[in-house]
């Protein structure tokens, strides 16, 4: 087999591959036997019809096409290995010569993995910023916990204020005609929540239980029900009750009810400890992300568009799986988000480009630093996956082997080790 390579663009190579005639003849014979077992010829048992009969039935071109698939399936992988090319997409194939009495000649246009010129990735100077846990933040968390344990009580004779819950009956009219979906009974509407049409909630402020009000609104131009978008409407509203939150006192009894602690002081200490842990984890996450970001931004890479498109495909597929796990189809999500498939792809484009660049830089660092994966590294990764999925380690190992994911897992571990190499070498400011 002969192979020549012509780099026509930065990340595009055209391979011209020539396969000897004797291999073509052998492939044609294999193609004949393969097709003979699929074609029913009257007067012959399946697979026993002579080659000339098969050719006359299906045509010489079909036989040659089958032979080409057999030959190219071997020749192309050998060619990219010989030329030390890493494709990032399926090649574009052009047959030059395909005949029984001649060598096979075909061209494969290949998009290759881009060259990565590493910038600074060792000894980066990065400051790790840990937010201070202030008394205000502790009070805010305590108030949130207090609100979660609040009771709703009827505010007898009270006028509705912002934050109150108005228990209402309502019916909406456009041009004095009630419209579908515009009515409700004993609906608990929190004033100021913004859950109703703009302007609706504010018009209930000051009303009391038993009072009736006409609320005049205009539906937004982008309202989900097209027949109501932009139209003026009147809602006839009756206030059944006004309810308010009754917050528990911040005392030891509250601490016992809302937590495993006996005193309010113990609860405050626990809140402070959790906030300190959360801020430390956030700072560490941002520190690591900044280190990787700087290493990537300092590198030079011309990323082929096909790699970005492929990553977008993967991201959308992950989104679809996550949505299905929550009982929603991707099409429903797009409708809810008022977005079409093209807009969704564009929303992922920038992140996809950054992700591809990051992987390429980490892979190049693996080569530059001669990073390797040990059995211990693999065992730790499988154990981490098992913990994440809540499955036994043995089951994850079995899935990885059966689905042929060992190489992908090794590459993932190598990239993680390269990322850790960057982080470990940072000179903290």
From TrEMBL:
Residue intervals of the PPIase FKBP-type domain: 163-248
GO biological process: 'de novo' cotranslational protein folding; protein transport; protein unfolding
EC code(s) of this entry: 5.2.1.8
Pfam families from the UniProt entry: FKBP_C (PF00254), Trigger_C (PF05698), Trigger_N (PF05697)
SUPFAM superfamilies: FKBP-like (SSF54534), Triger factor/SurA peptide-binding domain-like (SSF109998), Trigger factor ribosome-binding domain (SSF102735)
Family statement drawn from the similarity comment of this UniProt entry: Belongs to the FKBP-type PPIase family. Tig subfamily.
Name recorded for this polypeptide: peptidylprolyl isomerase
Keywords: Chaperone, Isomerase, Rotamase
UniProt xrefs under InterPro entries: PPIase_dom_sf, PPIase_FKBP_dom, Trig_fac, Trigger_fac_C, Trigger_fac_C_sf, Trigger_fac_ribosome-bd_bac, Trigger_fac_ribosome-bd_sf, Trigger_fact/SurA_dom_sf
Alphabetized Gene3D superfamilies for the sequence: 3.10.50.40, Trigger factor ribosome-binding domain, Trigger factor, C-terminal domain
Reaction equations catalysed: [protein]-peptidylproline (omega=180) = [protein]-peptidylproline (omega=0)
GO molecular function, a single term: ribosome binding
């Amino acid at each position: 087999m002969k192979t020549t390579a012509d780099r026509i663009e930065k990340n595009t190579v055209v391979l011209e591959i020539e396969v000897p005639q004797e291999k073509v003849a052998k492939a044609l014979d294999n193609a004949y036997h393969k097709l003979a077992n699929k074609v029913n010829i009257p007067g012959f048992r399946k697979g026993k019809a002579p080659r000339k009969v098969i050719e006359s039935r299906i045509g010489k071109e079909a036989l040659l096409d089958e032979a080409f698939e057999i030959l190219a399936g071997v020749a192309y992988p050998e060619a990219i290995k010989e030329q030390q090319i890493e494709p990032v997409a399926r090649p574009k194939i052009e047959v030059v010569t395909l005949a029984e009495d001649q060598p096979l000649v075909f061209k494969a246009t290949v998009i290759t993995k881009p060259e990565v010129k590493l910038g600074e990735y060792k000894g980066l100077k990065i400051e790790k910023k840990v937010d201070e846990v202030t008394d205000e933040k502790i009070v805010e968390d305590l108030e949130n916990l207090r609100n979660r344990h609040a009771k709703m009580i009827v505010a007898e004779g009270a006028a509705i204020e912002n934050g109150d819950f108005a228990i209402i009956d309502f019916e909406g009219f456009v041009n004095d005609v009630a419209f579908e979906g515009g009515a409700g009974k004993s609906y608990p509407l929190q004033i100021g929540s913004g859950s109703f049409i703009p302007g609706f909630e504010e018009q209930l402020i000051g009303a009391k239980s038993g009072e009736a009000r006409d609320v005049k609104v205009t539906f937004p131009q982008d309202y989900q029900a097209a027949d109501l978008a932009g139209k003026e409407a009147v809602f006839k509203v009756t206030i059944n009750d006004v309810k308010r939150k009754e917050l528990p006192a911040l005392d030891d009894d509250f601490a016992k009810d809302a937590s495993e602690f006996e005193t309010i002081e113990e609860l405050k200490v626990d809140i402070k400890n959790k906030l300190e842990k959360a801020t430390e984890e956030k700072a560490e996450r941002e520190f690591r992300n900044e280190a990787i970001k700087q290493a990537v931004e300092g590198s030079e890479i011309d990323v082929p568009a096909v790699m970005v498109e492929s990553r977008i495909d993967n991201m959308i597929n992950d989104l679809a799986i996550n949505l299905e796990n929550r009982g929603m189809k991707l099409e429903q999500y797009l409708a809810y988000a008022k977005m079409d498939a093209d807009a969704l792809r564009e929303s992922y484009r920038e992140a996809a480009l950054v992700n591809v660049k990051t992987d390429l830089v980490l892979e190049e660092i693996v080569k530059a630093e001669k990073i390797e994966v040990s059995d211990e590294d693999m065992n730790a990764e499988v154990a981490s996956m098992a913990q994440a999925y809540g499955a036994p380690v043995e089951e994850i190992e079995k899935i990885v082997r059966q689905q042929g994911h060992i190489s992908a897992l090794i590459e993932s571990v190598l990239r993680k080790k390269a990322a850790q190499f960057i982080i470990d070498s940072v000179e903290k400011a």
